[in-house]
Amino acid sequence: MELNQAEDHLRHVEKDVLIPKIMREKARERCSDHVQDFTKCCKDSGFLMVVKCRKENSALKECLTAHYRNPDFYEECKMEYLKEREEFRKTGIHSKNRLQKLPTNI
């Protein structure tokens, strides 16, 4: 099956849960500076974080939302998911488990 045809065969859970999960993870990596700024602000502000960290929170939301709304980013994450799914179907091992099972004494 070609990857172009694979979209027709994406299940609801793949489109609405699994691919968006990859998108969130990748977006957080790409917005890591904003994540760090917001995290630091929250740690430094304690209970006042709601008021004191609005600027950092807005910047983080803006960065993440820009990625979520980008159709090219969605396609990139979808292709990554399809590649992982294809590998799983071949090996029966999830990609995260496959990486953990590599021999360390090479």
From TrEMBL:
Domain of life where this protein originates: Eukaryota
Main location: mitochondrion
Listed PROSITE patterns: CHCH
UniProt entry keywords in alphabetical sequence: Disulfide bond, Mitochondrion
Alphabetical list of InterPro entries matching this protein: Cyt_c_biogenesis_Cmc1-like
One cellular component (GO) term of this entry: mitochondrion
Keyword Mitochondrion set for record: yes
Subcellular location: Mitochondrion
PANTHER family with a match to the protein in the record: COX ASSEMBLY MITOCHONDRIAL PROTEIN (PTHR22977), COX ASSEMBLY MITOCHONDRIAL PROTEIN HOMOLOG (PTHR22977:SF5)
Family stated for the protein in its record: Belongs to the CMC family.
Protein name as annotated: COX assembly mitochondrial protein
Lineage, highest ranks first: Eukaryota, Metazoa, Chordata, Craniata, Vertebrata
